Amino acid sequence: MKIGFDVAQTCTQRAGCAWYADSLIHAMVDVAPDNEYFLYHQFGTWINEDTGTGTVIKHPSAHLPFLGMDADQARARWNTGGLVGDPEIVQSNSFQVVPTGSAKLVFVIYDISFWIYPEFTTEANRLNCQYGVLKALSAADGLIFISESGRNEFDSLFPGLLERKGKHFAAIPLASRLPVPSQSNKTTESFWLAVGSMEPRKNYDAIFSAIDLYWRRSKNPSPVWIAAAAAGWKNEAMKTRARDLEAKGRIRILGYVEERRLATLYRDSLGLIFPSWYEGFGLPALEAMQCGCPVICSNRTSLPEVGGDVPLYIDPAQPESICDAMILLEEDPSRRQRCREAGMDRAKKFSWNQTAEATLEFYRKILES
Fold it and tell me: Which of 117, 139, 181, 202 has its CA 20 to 30 A from that of 295?
């Protein structure tokens, strides 16, 4: 196969969609090196001023036609047709439908929170994502969902629509992008961990309320370290509250954390606190389990699908339930250890090679139809 693949988001500070694109294309080249892959660092209207930090694969099957191309050249190229390499199939990872000529188009739907919880995002982001999905329902040949939960939720919102339109679709889970941390050089500090952009969907308000309760109830409280990129929206009140808790020594704001350090933070923490209102997949929960970190997470959307019976599930609307789980893990070291071991076993069920193989099989079905 000749495959065009959108890696435009990998050229910016990486969040979930960018890590998905980066991890998947590496795995596809690994499991199927006989294909040809064209990595598009500029894709449709997603034009980067600098592509220097984007995904790079050094392999004879991988071609990087837009790497190093300046923004004006890229815009001109896409205005006249940007599909370098004459691919047979193209995967869009940034909610964009681009002209593909005779090539088939695969469109990734990470979640539909912008319809279910429009208040959790900006108007511009909501409209962009909704427009992309609606356009894909007309123009794309296949749709990939990153969890069964996401696929089922889409069907509950648009019952039977994919079948009526004759679309190929599949739910293909993700895997952890992190290196497995070594067991050496562990920190002696005691801390909890929260991971994710500081925005309403991640439910930091519940974390902060739980922290206040926990510091009143715990006999020996530990702070919560927050690994959160600077990006985020509708979070001014959240950031004010965070600064107040940091001044009291109850949290530590780490900002953006690179992969290797994040893996060691998971390994060393008392547990991950992840009470998100909505997740298309819930990668931090899987990352934590892979690294041997107990997980306290929401009982909503895809998280039970990812975690199975391993995490301590809480109600994201009840900060008391988060505090109860923290106290339980803190006061029962044997329970923490069981969670660590069960989580590492659970994480082995997910791998990027499996995701790549399932994605390539999905491509073949589309091309053969």
Answer: 117
